[in-house]
Amino acid sequence: xxxxAHTMMTAARSTDSGLAxxxxxxxxxxxxxxxxxxxxxxxxxxxxxxxxxxxxRAAGSRGRGLHGQLxxxxxxxxxxxxxxxxxxxxxxxxxxxxxxxxxxxxESLRVLExxxxxxxxxxxxxxxxxxxxxxxxxxxxxxxxxxxxxxDDQRRELSxxxxxxxxxxxxxxxxxxxxDVQQRLVDMVEIMGHALAQGDALTFSRADTEFxxxxxxxxxxxxxxxxxxxxxxxxxxxxxxxxxxxRPNDTSxxxxxxxxxxLAAGDGxxxxxxxxxxxxxxxxxxxxxxxxxxx
Length: 295
Prior knowledge:
single chain, 3-stranded antiparallel sheet, mainly alpha, disordered C terminus
């Protein structure tokens, strides 16, 4: 079963480019520093000229259609600060700038409105909303922030949130043992170990993401389960030494295995402690949250 699972996950590599691998930070053309205020300047002044036509950057939009690509590119421009708060977004101008139909523009703006990035009002039009109105737990916004000028803040905030969510989930999961889930978690640890030996960072990342998602789902708490997408997004956008999951190594695999052993034994305290250890492997995180106490 483990070998089959590994084969399936490895085979998917050629078609799945959604996970950030080495160098993933460079796949979006963001500046290193926040963009200065451009109030009063033309709406698209300063935008990357390569954004002139949506179809030109399909690779950066992970194979999405025109609608999805426009959502991603406008979202990136808003989150990066290229389109600042209260900036008007004129559908006709967007359609001409990106050479897409009025329908594509309209549907894209609706998606951005649902994410809290823009608002549309009668007699006012569509405008960019301030950061305080954004749905910061939306997976797309998490990704856009993580690969933009706010990357450091986003990774720190995600790490703090994971450190709050996942140890609790591990403790709760120890009381909800299911043989099928337990075996699947064992499979994921085996896949991570095999991927590490092969130098296969992408397969390692896929298995790691499934491991943490399963753990939250079996915790038996619907509200925690609702947050599993945040953890998944955090793992996808990790690009630096923030937690023990970010860079494949023997220590990380061993700590995942200890979590599985604690779950199998029904030891919630041990599962929680192992998860805290996993999330504090690197010293950088210890500046954000305290190391687990010795009892």
